[in-house]
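Hello Y.,

Per our agreement to keep a running log of every chain we model this quarter, I'm adding this entry. I've kept the format consistent with earlier entries: sequence first, then predicted structure.
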Amino acid sequence: MNTFNPLRQAYRIRYQLFFLVTVNSYYPAFLKFFPCPVLNCYACPLAVFACPIGTLQHFAIIGSIPFFTFGILGLVGSAIGRWTCGWLCPFGFIQDMLAKVPLPKFSIPEKLCYSRYVILLLLVFILPYWLKEPWFSKLCPQGTLEGAIPIVLFMGKYQENIGWLFYLKIAILLAFLFLMLITTRPFCRTTCPLGTILSFFNKVSYYKLRVDNNSCTACGKCDEVCPVEIKKIYQNPDSSQCIRCLLCLQCSHISWGSEKNPKLICYDSCVTRKDMNVQN
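Predicted structure for the entry above:
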């Protein structure tokens, strides 16, 4: 029996937790030149990989093109789109965990989700090029959580340099942590520049969500489980908002695969129907 069951949130959480530990395991630090396609702060004392967004800002500052970083992101995106957002990203994992707190949940207005394109252009490319400062990294809540706070707490020499920027970073982090309690994936949907870059590949990636239009009844079950609140997934399975969490595969008319193997992962391939009814 196939034990692979991406429809169970607990299964995906194990992947996320494993990757959180892996990218912050310190010892293979020689890989810090390599851009990892998830949002994980380079400044974290335990970080193993480079932050691709930090790298893009650096090259914008020096007025050069980061061919290697663009190549890595292009390879990942063209293969799986935003799958790393849904299954590997440490900050995505934090958002998923806080969303489980039993508080009333609110929807994010769809128009607000376009702000991530402005943030990508303004804070990752335009301002760093113009002001010669990595402004997204300066304000990034993930950087504050993994980098700024540990550095200030455990490296005393930096405490005397705390100023308004540090308090602004803390305020932004607290604001996002609060939003994570009352909505789902707010940072991914409104802010994340890395997810925005990978989202351009959702429509063209080799592996993607596929809908059997011949059998789909437009029941809306896929919409009900979507953590980023995509409307009518059965009409737009390649939405740029999709983080490829695969929870919509609870509908038997949606699958994950390639053109040659469109049902690589589908409802019928995930253990038994009885197991699917177990609460996540």
